Amino acid sequence: MITLITGATSGIGEQLAKQYASAGDTVIACGRNQEKLNALGQFDNIQACQFDATDIQQIRLATAAYPDLDRVILNAGNCEYVDDARNFDSSLFTRVVTTNLLSMGYCLEALLPKIKPGGQLVLVSSSVTYLPLPRSQAYGASKAGVSYLAKSLAIDLNDIDVTLVHPGFVKTPLTDKNDFPMPMAVTAEKAADYIIKSVAKRRKEVHFPYRFTLILKCLRILPLSLWLKLAKGLTR
Ligand SMILES: NC(=O)c1ccc[n+]([C@@H]2O[C@H](COP(=O)([O-])OP(=O)(O)OC[C@H]3O[C@@H](n4cnc5c(N)ncnc54)[C@H](OP(=O)(O)O)[C@@H]3O)[C@@H](O)[C@H]2O)c1
């Protein structure tokens, strides 16, 4: 099996690359960081591939020579919080939406034609999409777009199975900078386990850790006005 993973130079994507490669897949590990890519390229079954996922030309050039793929996991992403919503920073908003959502469109244009019939597409969103959270206007909006994109693709892609991933908190360089508690956070290894098992079963949605995501899913049925009152209590 050939699995291409974006955001494979760190965190969840790096663990996915290592675990798929250990299981015998040929992994095409993508990212921008050449040093991390060189290190990944030393692993058996991992080929490194450098591109900026926000640049369609770079993606096309870097992936042109690859053969047909069994699995594409679009995982690259970044998080920046909005500290002052009253003085909205449109450049931060653009950065986050471009990295998390528009990049998926570029990757889909370049890579969907390479996925074999019967193959799989995995889009990594976030459990932030279950409920509006403080300071998450950019990150949450970008990930809400990813979730919608995945669900809508699952309707129209007849010969490719789509899996949407909604992680809770995972300890990675992305969350190391968080200055608030991260309830029920799991390691990147554990996150990769959850994803790999569910992708193997061709699940439509993966969410973890289950206790955390189930609580969010239950809170989602509250009237919005009540949730907004509770969420205001979460602000610093
Ligand atoms: N950690 C969590 O708690 C959590 C929770 C929910 C969802 N997620 C999602 O899970 C995914 C992985 O997150 P993580 O926690 O593993 O983050 P991470 O450790 O910071 O890794 C992010 C990865 O994305 C890549 N990336 C970022 N911008 C890129 C760009 N413009 N072009 C190409 N690659 C780019 C980075 O590679 P380079 O720097 O080499 O480009 C890196 O490999 C993200 O989509 C994130 O939103 C994470």
UniProtKB/TrEMBL annotation:
Coiled-coil portions: none
Signal peptide: none
Matches recorded under Gene3D superfamilies: NAD(P)-binding Rossmann-like Domain
Keywords: Oxidoreductase
Pfam families the UniProt entry points to: adh_short
PROSITE patterns: ADH_SHORT
Family: Belongs to the short-chain dehydrogenases/reductases (SDR) family.
Protein known as: SDR family NAD(P)-dependent oxidoreductase
